[in-house]
Amino acid sequence: MSAAAVLAALVARGETVAVAESLTGGLVAAALTEVPGASRAFRGSVTAYATELKRDLLGVDGTLLAERGAVDPEVARQMAAGVRAALGADWGIATTGVAGPDPQTGPGDHPVGTVWVAVVGPGDMGKVATSRLNGGRAEIRKESVRSVLALLSGELHDHARAQEHDHARAQDTEQNGGN
Q1: How far apart are CA 93 and CA 84, in angstroms?
Q2: DSSP assignment, residue 23?
Q3: What are the boundaries of each domain within the chain?
Q4: Residue 93: which pLDDT band, with cuts at 50, 70 and 90?
Q5: What is this structure's pTM?
Q6: Closest Cα partner for 42 from 89, 101, 82?
Q7: pLDDT at residue 90 is higher than 70
Q8: For 82-174, where are the E strands, in sequence order?
Q9: How far is CA 158 from each of CA 48, 59, 71, 119, 120, rounded to the nearest angstrom?
């Protein structure tokens, strides 16, 4: 789903999004803010490229970072939750990974193209997805933007379906006297 479609869905719901980026270095925020009227749903972003910024600005657990490194599913989830809280948004999304040209070494060695994207929404419910992307640095970063927007789109859709289901169940209970 495009940035415009994601923003339109958020505006229709009266909800907002904030972005935490590492390997994409601001590309997700740029894609969102390219859309006219983005300010109706886009709260802002934090580009936490350095590991200590993930800890200090986004609240990612320091022990987790020391043990696993910054390219990790739980790091991605905590980045999304942290930016959501820090910027007061309904939804937080995050990207972390290895764009290259060199693989990540140290805790949690990862080859070039390893990417984690995360979404955390209302009720701290969320989802994390991984990709093993091919191509050069620019292609990996561009595809990471697409991946995180697609993940958010899916979560918005699933959240809307769950709300419709809950609403229908409540109406059925009301009509049938609570039995």
Answers
A1: 8
A2: T
A3: 3-175
A4: very high
A5: 0.89
A6: 89
A7: yes
A8: 91-97, 114-120, 126-132
A9: 28, 27, 26, 12, 13
Whole-number Cα distances in Å, 46 to 29, 57, 71, 107: 9, 8, 17, 24
**CA atoms within 13 Å, Cβ hemisphere of 55:** 11
3-state SS class at 119:
strand
What is the per-residue DSSP string for 40-83?
GTEEEEEE--SHHHHHHHH---HHHHHHH-SSSHHHHHHHHHHH
Which residues, at least 6 apart from 11, have a Cβ–Cβ distance to it below 8 Å?
37, 40, 41
- Work out the average pLDDT over 126-152: 96
Alpha carbon dihedral 108, 109, 113, 117, in 10-degree steps, equals 10
CA 1 to chain centre: 14
Q: What is the reported pLDDT for 163?
A: 60
- Architecture (CATH level 2) of domain 3-175: Alpha-Beta Complex (3.90)
pLDDT tens by residue, 141-165: 999 999 999 999 999 988 766 666 4
